[in-house]
Structures are given as structure tokens and as C-alpha cells.
């Protein structure tokens, strides 16, 4: 593993600030040689011209299609060619950064590193970094599906253009991003200005990386389960179907109140953060009972076969029968990996799995997982 070349995938919607971040990384004094793969959508390689060039750097531009669909094979080819050049001594680099086009869903890019045998012999994904623009991010998330997927896949979310907006907008956007992807820390990053350690060597795909989930998120997720399940009826008279549009910010609720964000309504519910109809959302499974390994394995296989395309990232610390060690597992779409970790020791064994996906049937999945418990 130590010999594999780490690869950082930078994603984010059009104009979010990816190239600005990349330039920042390339000019920073980190003493590392970096090869860059740029994916442009269209004929002109504009970003390539915008990148600060350093003689040591290999910059490959792929502009004959979108990296996520039409040219995944080309990505693998480029990666292998780079590796051959490194072996011959005509290219020197210790890591690779891929900047995807703003329109790409980064899932297939990440998958290339797991599915292409040759590529996976040389490279490993270190992390997916998603740049979200604080000025336009909210609207982009409302309107653009790939932008949502980019958030769902992220190991880190970098918030750019915070200098251009009020702090309330930033807070609301952060709350929304956190709801969509509670795994990824959100870091402010004006003009690409971020500590390099937040971007490189983050080990986002390491199985032994901790599953740190903010306790507030877990609490909120539980409360939400108690209140507004899909299809639930709220006492204010609204049917809370999955689109969460019950109290649209600035919307008129049938209980007769105009609900500003953060208000407590006379129907008794506190309408905290604006509820967006996000395609991508996260939920958590928790239980103190152990899993039966065979049942869980078979359930997860079926689940990923059916919902794999919509399962962006999932990761869990598992309590299994037959071992006193923690089992760590994670996956991207259909690809899963699991490994035994350290013993539970003094810690009370418990299961915690976070799923981030596109309109996943939360209730059914949680129930399905329950059936895999001993
Ligand atoms: N004020 C401000 N402007 C920023 C910030 N980050 C980026 N910009 C500007 O936003 C514009 C777009 O930035 P880019 O880095 O080119 O964005 P990109 O994501 O690479 O864009 P595409 O390649 O089109 O997808 C540029 O004019 C940047 O100077 C920031 O934090 N604050």
C-alpha cells in the first residue's frame, strides 16, 4: 500500500473554485512532485492555460468528453501511460491530482481505481475533495444533480467564496451540506486558501480511518425519524411526503402561519433549517446487537445490486458475532470492502453505519439491516 501513488480527486460545480484551489496546491511549498490530470468538457483546454506551470509537473488534459462517462477508459490509459513514463524516468511525480469537469459525477472516476486492475496496482484514491461555492452553492444544489452527487461523494468539502456572502447564508449552506454528507468535514477555503494537510494525505478510503460522525447529526437524524417520516401526517395538516416541502422557507403553511426559517410554528414543530428537496441525503443505522456475518453479507450484496448506482458512499464500524474485533467496511456504489480492525477492548461493541445516497429507501434499508442482527 505504501508504494501506491496517492490520487486526489477535486470536484465541484462549474466555477466553484477548483482551478483556484489546484493552483494554490501547485504553488505551495510542499516539496512534492504532482502530476495533474484535467478533464475539460469541450474543445478548448482553458483551465490548462490557467494553471500555473512548473517544469516538474506533468499536466494532462482530457477534453474529448466528460471523464465520468465517455472517457473512463481514457483516464485509465492516461494513468498507465503516466506510470510508464515514471518508470522510464521521463516523468517524476509522487502523487496525482485529478480535476474533474464541473458537470461530472465523481463516482465513476473513483471507481476506475478500484475496478481497473492495472490502475489499482499503481494508484490508490486518497480522497475526494468537493469545492462548493458559498455564493452560488445553494442554487446550484437546487438545480443541478451532479452538484449534489459531488457533495455526497466528498471526503472533505471546501467552501469557497465565503468572502462574498453573509455568515447566515454560510451557516444555512453548511447545515444543508452536513445533512447531505455528515462524513465530510466542511472547511472554509477562500481563493483556494486552505491548509494543504486538509487536502492531501487525508486517507479518505482507508478502512481503518475513523468513522467520525457529529453527535448532533445523529441526534437530529433520530429526532427526524420521530417526527417527519416519509408519508407522515403532521399535526399542522400537511402531508410530509418525501419532498420535505412542508414548510418551505418563506412558504405559507396550512396551519395559517408564514414560516420564516428557524421559527417555531403554532403546529408545535420547530422549523429549523430550511428543508430542501435534496436528491442526496444521509442516514445512519445504529444497533447494540451484533450482526450475523453471513446474513449481513448476503443482504449487502442484494442491496448493492439493486441500489448500487444510488449508493454513493457508505461506511460502517460493525459489531459482528464470532470476533472480538471491530469490523470496518465501506463502499462506493457496488464496490464494498471490509476488514477486521482493533479489538473492542473497553469500548462497548455497537454498530454504526452511515449511508449517503440518492433517494435511498431509508426505512426499508434500516429494517433490512435489523433482520441481519443476531
Ligand atoms: N471572491 C472569491 N472568488 C473566488 C474564490 N474562489 C474562486 N474564485 C473565483 O471564481 C472564479 C472561478 O474559479 P475557478 O477556480 O476557475 O473555478 P472552477 O471550479 O475551476 O471552474 P470551472 O473550471 O469552470 O469548473 C474565478 O474568477 C476565481 O478567481 C473565492 O474564494 N472568493
From TrEMBL:
Signal peptide: none annotated. Pfam families: cobW, CobW_C. One of its GO terms (molecular function) is hydrolase activity. It catalyses: GTP + H2O = GDP + phosphate + H(+). One of its GO terms (cellular component) is cytoplasm. InterPro entries: CobW-likC_sf (IPR036627), CobW-like_C (IPR011629), CobW/HypB/UreG_nucleotide-bd (IPR003495), P-loop_NTPase (IPR027417), Zinc-reg_GTPase_activator (IPR051316). Keywords: Chaperone, Hydrolase, Nucleotide-binding. The keyword Phosphoprotein does not apply. Residues 280-373 form the CobW C-terminal domain. Belongs to the SIMIBI class G3E GTPase family. ZNG1 subfamily. Zinc chaperone that directly transfers zinc cofactor to target proteins, thereby activating them. Zinc is transferred from the CXCC motif in the GTPase domain to the zinc binding site in target proteins in a process requiring GTP hydrolysis. This is GTP-binding protein.
Amino acid at each position: 500500500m505504501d508504494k501506491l501513488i496517492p490520487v486526489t480527486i477535486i470536484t465541484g460545480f462549474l466555477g466553484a473554485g477548483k482551478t483556484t484551489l489546484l493552483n494554490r496546491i501547485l504553488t505551495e511549498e510542499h516539496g512534492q512532485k504532482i502530476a495533474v490530470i484535467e478533464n475539460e468538457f469541450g474543445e478548448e483546454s482553458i483551465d490548462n492555460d490557467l494553471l500555473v506551470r512548473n517544469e516538474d509537473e506533468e499536466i494532462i488534459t482530457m477534453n474529448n468528453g466528460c471523464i465520468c462517462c465517455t472517457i473512463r477508459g481514457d483516464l485509465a490509459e492516461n494513468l498507465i501511460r503516466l506510470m510508464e513514463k515514471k518508470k522510464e524516468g521521463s516523468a517524476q511525480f509522487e502523487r496525482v491530482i485529478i480535476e474533474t469537469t464541473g458537470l461530472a459525477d465523481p463516482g465513476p472516476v473513483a471507481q476506475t481505481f478500484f475496478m481497473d486492475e492495472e490502475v489499482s496496482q499503481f494508484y490508490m484514491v486518497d480522497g475526494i475533495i468537493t469545492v462548493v461555492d458559498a455564493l452560488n452553492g445553494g442554487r446550484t444544489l437546487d438545480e443541478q444533480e451532479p452538484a449534489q452527487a459531488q457533495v455526497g461523494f466528498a471526503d472533505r468539502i471546501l467552501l469557497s467564496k465565503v468572502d462574498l456572502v453573509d455568515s447566515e447564508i454560510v451557516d444555512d449552506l453548511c447545515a444543508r451540506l452536513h445533512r447531505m454528507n455528515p462524513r465530510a468535514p466542511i472547511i472554509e477555503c477562500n481563493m483556494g486558501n486552505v491548509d494543504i494537510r486538509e487536502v492531501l494525505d487525508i486517507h479518505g478510503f482507508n478502512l481503518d480511518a475513523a468513522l467520525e460522525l457529529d453527535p448532533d447529526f445523529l441526534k437530529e437524524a433520530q429526532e427526524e425519524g420521530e417526527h417527519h417520516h416519509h408519508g407522515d401526517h403532521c399535526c399542522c395538516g400537511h402531508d410530509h411526503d418525501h419532498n420535505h416541502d412542508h414548510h418551505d422557507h418563506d412558504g405559507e403553511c396550512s396551519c395559517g402561519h408564514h414560516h420564516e426559517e428557524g421559527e417555531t410554528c403554532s403546529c408545535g414543530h420547530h422549523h429549523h433549517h430550511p428543508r430542501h428537496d435534496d436528491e442526496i441525503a444521509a442516514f445512519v443505522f445504529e444497533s447494540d446487537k451484533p450482526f450475523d456475518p453471513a446474513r449481513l453479507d448476503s443482504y449487502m450484496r442484494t442491496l448493492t445490486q439493486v441500489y448500487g448506482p444510488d449508493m454513493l458512499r457508505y461506511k460502517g464500524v460493525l459489531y459482528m458475532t464470532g470476533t472480538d474485533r471491530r469490523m470496518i467496511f465501506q463502499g462506493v456504489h457496488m464496490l464494498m470492502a471490509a476488514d477486521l480492525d482493533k479489538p473492542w477492548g473497553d469500548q462497548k461493541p455497537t454498530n454504526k453505519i452511515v449511508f449517503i445516497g440518492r433517494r435511498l429507501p431509508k426505512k426499508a434499508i434500516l429494517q433490512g439491516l435489523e433482520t441481519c442482527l443476531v
